[in-house]
Amino acid sequence: MSPSSAALNILIVDDDVVDREMIRRCLDRGHLNVKMTEASTVDDGLRLYDQEKFDAILLDYRMPQRDGIEMILELRTYMRDFGSAIIMMSSADDEELAEQCLNAGAQDFIPKAEITSGRISRALIHARTRFSLEHKLRKSFLKTKELAEKDSLTNLSNRFVFEEALKVSIANNQRHEFKLALILFDVDKFKQINDVHGHDIGDLVLIGVAERVAKSLRSDELFVRLGGDEFAIMINNLRDVFQLSRISKRLLSCFKAPIVIGDLHIDVSISIGIAIHPDNCTDSKELVKCSDIALYRAKIDRGNKVCFFLPEMQEQFLRRYRVEKMVNHALKNEGFELHYQPIINPQDLSLVGFEALLRLNSPNSDKTYPDEFIPIAESNGSIIPIGDWVIDQAISQCAQWNSQYRKTYSMAINLSAIQIENSEVHKVVANALKKHGVAAQLIEFEITETALLNAQTDIVDRIKRIRELGCGIGLDDFGTGYSSISHLHNFPITTVKFDRSIIPHAPDDKHSTRIIKALLAMVNVLELEVVAEGIEEEFQAGIIKAFNISKAQGYYFQRPSGAQEIELAYFSEAKKIGRN
Known about the structure:
This protein is of the alpha/beta class. Mean pLDDT is 86; it is low at 574-580.
């Protein structure tokens, strides 16, 4: 390299000022055109390295706080940059130390006693040449590694990556309380697609399948092509196996629309087999086998199906699937109805209002209860239109009874956490009140304490908007373990509903009686109304009467019933309150 060539930018990192000056003079006397920057510590060297590109680093091994090998490791191991050749220097002429430095990533090692103008110039040239070759070799290695780990058609990870990742995940999962799910799926009748349209079109279909599925998954879910038309998805840190229901549904829904290739519109469906670690097995090969068997079972049933490996789990999934179909069918075909449970004043057994409770009428006598179908409706989002219907129907019924019998009965309506997330919920309430001409103070919306846990600011605002309409806000399940005085402070609560679990279960249940007494003292100070639910025995009615609680509900008074039954029980002379 001639003196007219572009200058080599050199970083000298050495804590000894005399040694740095000696190195600088040797470089000045050499035939290389160099620009030099100095640092006295590893940290200063790294800071300068981040600010400027250096062709080479002359690095002392022994320095205070951090030695030269630590700097090499930080530059090389953590991929800070691969732009600089490194020459390690040391006062010690130690072959073992030289080997350590070269293994760490340096290109050369020079004992300081051997540093001369010619020696250091040759070392720089050789180090830069070796570094360039190493850099090309590394790029070639990374390219080969990528080719070895990527599926060339879909650009997904391949079977090799999948098998290694599955082994590691299962090993890690042995030490945690999570589940790991393996989902295998393939394209139904893919051979027919190849036979009819040719393998080139078949390849494009596989690319389309990969793209659609990838968009439906989270970034931390490993998605690979195993070969042919078979794909795998690995789900780590799974707490609830029913998450797989939602994931599987997303996968199936990816192919509602055909894959379009030029003028071709190709209908595609997939079959899915699922196995779970450690429920099904504890070995990676066995897990693949279980998933494969489940996939086979899914394809036997004409494809476009999801099948779990264990029969019991399969039944759970199928039950959830059936209930979800029932919910969707009921939503489209007016299959929901409201039952009403009377709210009674225990002091004189007078009727003061009702709670509206959702029921699902199954067309095939497959009975399902709210605890089962409401969480499913919440998970798939159908609770929003269902909830809107409940609000309208309950307010309409309240208007009808109050008008017909010239009363002012109240109506309590449950709001789920998902409904509260709907920014339009207060408008739904306002429109129903206006539509049916009901005074807002007669309507109360009950919210469970779990729905208020970690509530965001917008959730608080929506509840406040409903309260600003004039409606009451009831805190349901009060006393179940989630109770927090902060809820009473942060939300515009007007009523607390004592959960059935804290109602005394025996006449001499002094512990529960004391709890009720303490809770009553608190809510009375806050001037909140109280409703006691779950009153099933006469002695329970007597206890809450003695505590001067003015509202109660439960089987002792009346089970939730349809509107006609309520009218027969409470709006005729044939029935008396307290005998149903």
